[in-house]
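so my prof wants the structure for this chain in the tokens format not the other one, which i didnt know existed until like an hour ago. anyway here's the sequence
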Amino acid sequence: MNALIQHPQHRLCSQFPNIAFYVVALVASTGGIAALCTILAALPADFPAAILVVLHLSPHSPSYLPEILSRRTALQVKPAATGEVLRPGTVYVAVPAHHLMMQPNGTLMLLDTPKMNFVRPAADKLLMSMATVYKARSIAVVLTGNGSDGALGILCIKKHGGATIAQDQATSEFFGMPGAAIATGTVDWVLPLDAIADRLMHLIAA
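here's what i got, hopefully its the right format
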């Protein structure tokens, strides 16, 4: 069988060369800073995937999340910006009051469009746009947080052939977001927080 038929993502990569690697989305709300730090601290500087972070943040104060995360990880951490070309080994952090989404050419886009699930940035916005662009190279991780943001995005990731992970209840400060994702029936792995980085490395290496 033709290899391009076996692996449809190869056609996407040939159209957009910057989509030649995996992209991981880490999404969280309450309790998420500690969870993000735990995962990112366990990943090596040469982690061969780009990482996108959505954390529900107050729109009324500046975010120091990139600085906080950069002190906990060997990876490069930066605020996301419209038009940014993704690079492996780099963490792109959503900014307050803006949705973080993927454009069809694989670059980032920040939008101040209406809230989704009562929040902006919304995990669902990122995951749904990421799924349509990166398809089988998408990996979504839903971490501790209130509400159900991320559940619709998880469905979309699976529909397009990506992989899905949710933090388990025992290690979640708040189980709303992971629980809603798990309830969709499309989460591949439910893992304790300290096992997620190892799973990501195995998935990227596969």
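also thought this was worth mentioning. The beta strands are 22-28, 49-55, 76-79, 90-93, 99-102, 108-111, 138-142, 163-167, 189-191.
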